[in-house]
Design goal:
Radius of gyration: 16 Å
Distance between the termini: 14 Å
Number of helices: 9
Shape: globular
CATH architecture: Alpha Horseshoe
């Protein structure tokens, strides 16, 4: 078994805690190229998620993830709400009815989340968005699984790849979202969405 319902709930709680800790950092990143509210919005959204978790603590994993998605859509402002909401809704649909996840299930959930973000944001890798962190993370997780790596090592590989992708957004010129309004001036700044993706994946890799 790779992960069960308890693992997923623990990951969401760790994610909320990390986003609270990094709230000002994310907002600072967003102030440079966006609306300056990414940290505030993500903290608010995951605080709302925490409040919802007791009501789905006995539900299947797909239902838990879909509840996270609908909560984020309704509480997170800007583009992040619809994007993260879509990611969790798509992952929840892919994992509907699951009580525990094998490696292949996690791949399916990650791929569904990534495709949801791409479809909703009309974004591709290289455009200075959260896709630049999530896409390499998905590929790294799949590659680690193909090599037979243990669950936690595969998650660590995904987190490492996400961090590399996040750092790789710094020299990019944004072509999507609020940052694209800055044109060439968006280069030299780390994308806040790619950063929050990395924080979520690190929270998964740091599970006990």
């Amino acid at each position: 078994m790779a992960a069960d319902r308890v693992c997923i709930l623990s990951w969401l709680r760790r994610s909320a805690e990390e986003l609270r800790v990094q709230r000002e950092y994310l907002t600072e990143l967003d102030a440079a190229i966006g609306d300056g509210d990414h940290g505030i919005n993500m903290d608010r959204g995951f605080t709302a998620v925490l409040e919802k978790l007791p009501s789905v603590s006995e539900a299947d994993i797909g239902t838990i993830l879909k509840t996270v998605g609908t909560t984020l859509v309704s509480t997170v402002g800007g583009a992040s709400g619809p994007l993260y909401g879509t990611a969790f809704l798509r992952a929840g649909t892919a994992l509907a009815g699951k009580q525990e996840l094998q490696a292949s299930d996690i791949v399916a959930g990650l791929e569904a989340a990534l495709e949801g973000i791409k479809a909703r944001g009309h974004a591709q890798i290289g455009e200075k968005t959260m896709v630049d962190a999530l896409s390499p993370a998905v590929e790294a997780y799949k590659a680690a699984c193909a090599l037979g790596k243990p669950f936690q090592e595969a998650l660590q590989a995904a987190g490492d790849a996400a961090e590399d992708g996040m750092k790789g957004t710094i020299p990019l010129v944004a072509t999507k979202g609020r940052a694209s309004y800055l044109g060439e001036r968006s280069a030299g700044h780390q994308d806040p969405g790619a950063t929050s993706v990395t924080l979520l994946l690190r929270a998964a890799a740091n599970g006990k």
